[in-house]
Amino acid sequence: MPQTVLVAAIQGSSVFGDTEANKKKFSDLCREASANGAKIIVLPEASLTGYLSEDMKKSWHVPGRRLNKSQVTGQTFEAVDPCDYAECVPGPLTKAFCALAQELHVYITIPFVEKAEIDGATCYFNTVCLASPDGELVAHYRKNNPWPYVDHAWITAGNRTAVVDTPYGRVGLAICFDVHVMFERYERENLWALLYSVAWVDTDTKSWFTRHLPIRVAKVEYNVVAANWSLSSASVAESWQCRGTDGYGHSSIYDGSGSRLAGASSLVGDEIIYANLETKHAAETSPFNAQVSCAQRSLDLTGLWRSNFYGPTEDLEILLTSDGLKAKKKTGDLNVPAGMVSWWTKGVPRENEPVQAWFQHRDDVSDPNGFYWELSELQTVSNAELHLTLKEGGRLRGSTGIFKRVRVTV
C-alpha cells in the first residue's frame, strides 16, 4: 500500500508592515492545519512581513531605486523603507516559527522580508526558510527571479536553490515569479515536492492556477504545494476588480502529473487546503520505472521528421529525454524559430496509445518573451508517422499536425 502524507497550503491576507499581527494570525492557522493532520505547511509569499499593502498603495522601497505605478490605484506606490521591518536569519521570526514547528512536530515555511549585510552594505531579500519538526532551521532560500513590477524597488536577488531531505522525500523552496526559472533548475535536484510561496498580481488568475501552472508542474514531474495570498474583504477585492486586476486566491496543490489535487474555494479571507501526497519512496517504485522501460522500447522514434503543420514545410529533430520525446526545430517559422523546442511529451507513446504532450505557442510573434505551453496529445500511428492534436489554444485548438519521418538518427 502506498504511503502518503498530508500537506497544507495556507491562503491568507497580511497586514503590511505589522509583523506581530501576521505572526499571530499565521501561527494560529498553522495550529489549525496541524490539528487536521498536516505534516508540511506552506505560507504565502512574504506573508509574515507583508508583500504589498492589500489596497495596493504601499510597496517596500530602497532609496534610489525606481518605483512603478500601482495596477490598482494608477498612482505611484507610496515608498516604505524596509529597514525597520526586515529581519535577519536567524532572527525573531525564524526562532518563533522553529519553536512552533517543534511544538506541532511539523515542517513550516517561514516567508518574510530579510535584511543582511553583504560586503558592507545592507541588502534586502524576499526570503522563505523552512523549520523542521525538531525546531531547526533546515533551509534558507532567497527569491532568485525578482518580479520587475515591484521587486526591483527593494530586492537583491538570490542565486541558489534550497533543498532538504525529509522523511517524505526531498523538498525545495521557491517564491512566486521564480516559476519562470526555478521550476526547471529544481529538475536537477530530484525533488519530491516544491514548497511554493506566492503573492500573485495579474489578470485571469484562475486560468493561471488551473491551466498554465499545471502544465509547468507536469513538465518537471514533482509535487507542488502553492500557497497564494488573499484579501481581507470583498470590498478590497472590488477595488482591484475595478481596475481589471486580480491575483489573490486559487491556492493549489498538484501532484507530479500536474493534476490539481486541491484548490481554494474562496478568494477573500483565510482558507487552508489539504491534499495527501504519495511519499517519494512509494512513488519511485511505480510510474517512473514503467515510463523508463516504455522509453527503452521506443528509441526508434528519434530522428529527423517533417511536417507542414505551421504552414511551410519544416523539419524537426525528435530526441529522447528522461521525460519522453522532445521535438527541436531544425527549420523555423514565424511562431517558433529554429533551434527552439516545438513540443515535448510526458512519456513515450507506443503504437496507437496516445500520451500527453505540450506544444509551444505565442499569440504575438513580435513578443520574444510571449511563449507559453499548451496541452496537446501525441499519437504514434506508425514508426514513420506521428499525430499531434492540440487540446488548447485559440484558432489552432482541435487541429492535428502530421509528422512524417525523414531519416533515422544514427
| Strand residue percentage | 25-35%
State the major sheet. 8 strands, antiparallel, barrel
- CATH class category name of the largest domain: Alpha Beta
Corresponding CATH architecture of the largest domain: 4-Layer Sandwich
CATH superfamily heading of the largest domain: Carbon-nitrogen hydrolase
| Helix count, DSSP H or I runs of 4 or more residues | 7
Strand numbers in spatial order across the main sheet: 15-16-17-18-19-20-21-22
Could you spell the SSE succession in H and E letters? EHEEEHEEEEEHEHEHEEEHHEEEEEEEE
| N/C terminus separation | 43 Å
What would you call the shape?
A: globular
Q: How many DSSP-defined strands?
A: 22
Structural class category: alpha+beta
CATH topology of the largest domain: Nitrilase/N-carbamoyl-D-aminoacid amidohydrolase
Helix content: 10-25%
Total number of distinct structural domains: 2
Structural account:
The chain is an alpha+beta fold and 410 residues long. The chain folds into two domains: 4-285, Carbon-nitrogen hydrolase (Nitrilase/N-carbamoyl-D-aminoacid amidohydrolase), CATH 3.60.110; 289-407, Lipocalin, CATH 2.40.128. Helices cover 18% and strands 33% of the residues. The protein has seven helices and 22 strands. A hairpin with a 2-residue loop joins strand 20 (372-382) and strand 21. Helix 1 (19-35) runs parallel beside helix 2 (92-104). The longest helix has 17 residues, at 19-35. It is globular. The model is unreliable at 282-299 (pLDDT under 50).
